[in-house]
Amino acid sequence: MNILLTLACTNGEPADDSRSADDSVLQDIVYPSSEKVLIYSGHGGEPGASTGVGGTDDLVALLESEYGFNVDVRSTLGEPEKFRAVLFMDPGQRESRSFSEDDIALMQAGLDAGTRLIFVATVGNCLGETINPVVEALGGSMGFGGDNAPTTQIMEPAQDHQLTQGIDEVFFVNPCMVDSGQGEAVFLVSRDAFMAAERPARGGDIVLFGDYQWFDDTGKHANGSNLQLARNLFEVDPAF
Fold it and tell me: Domain map of the chain by residue range?
């Protein structure tokens, strides 16, 4: 069993790690073995536009051709524990609709099985009013704070993390800012985080980021290391 002691940070700044071992949170890391991915557009999320904005055909083609993953794109949640990762495409953007206790229980079962839960919010949804309560209910401390960058952000990795392996810089379009809480800021500019990750008490991890145009069907996945970030996002396991 792998044991990880996570150092907390807020918006990229290391928190005080002088706590005693008794006060620290010891975490059992579970990595998924499933070769299935779910892209979820329910709860007022983004189903993709004819212009390519929010479309996921290119991402699906990448995951199927390079990894042989089976990818479901749908608006029903089902059983997250059967997937290596679930990508929630901007829930709350088109319709304000809260996740139920039953939905959260399904997500928790996914985390327990090692599933990575990925939440993206974009401009107009940066308050994270649908996403933030879910993250909190799952034991996370991260959230979207309401602000977004007015321009495209070119970012280098904030720290060494599974998500940053093989990456020089990534391009996010007007991304929402993320409060990394007790999680880890993955990409930031100055003190502003735009992607963060956190492993709550056990099992899989939760990832938040503030833009989907870096991987959608508008072609921006060709910029910088954006394509490599997409690979890392769904590989999940550092030893993949």
Answer: 3-235
| Percentage with pLDDT > 70 across the chain | 89
Kindly report the number of other CB atoms within 10 A of residue 16's CB atom: 7
The domain at 3-235 falls in which architecture?
Answer: 3-Layer(aba) Sandwich (3.40)
1 CB contacts (<8 Å, ≥6 apart)?
28
DSSP 35-98: -EEEEE-TTT-----TTSTT--HHHHHHHHHHH--EEEEES----GGGSSEEEEE-TTSSS--P
Cβ-contact 85, 236 below 8 angstroms: yes
**What span, in angstroms and rounded, lies between the C-alpha atoms of 28 and 87?**
23
Residue ranges of the alpha helices (H) in 77-191? 101-112, 131-137
Residues 38, 234 contacting (CB under 8 angstroms): no
Among 149, 132, 129, residue whose Cα is nearest residue 140: 132
pLDDT tier, 27 (very low <50, low <70, confident <90, very high otherwise)? low
Which one-letter amino acid corresponds to residue 27?
Answer: Q
Angle between helices 226-235 and 57-67 (to 10 degrees): 60
Per the CB < 8 A criterion, the answer to whether 218 and 142 are in contact is no
Element (H, E) at 231: helix 226-235
> Residue 210 above 60 pLDDT?
yes
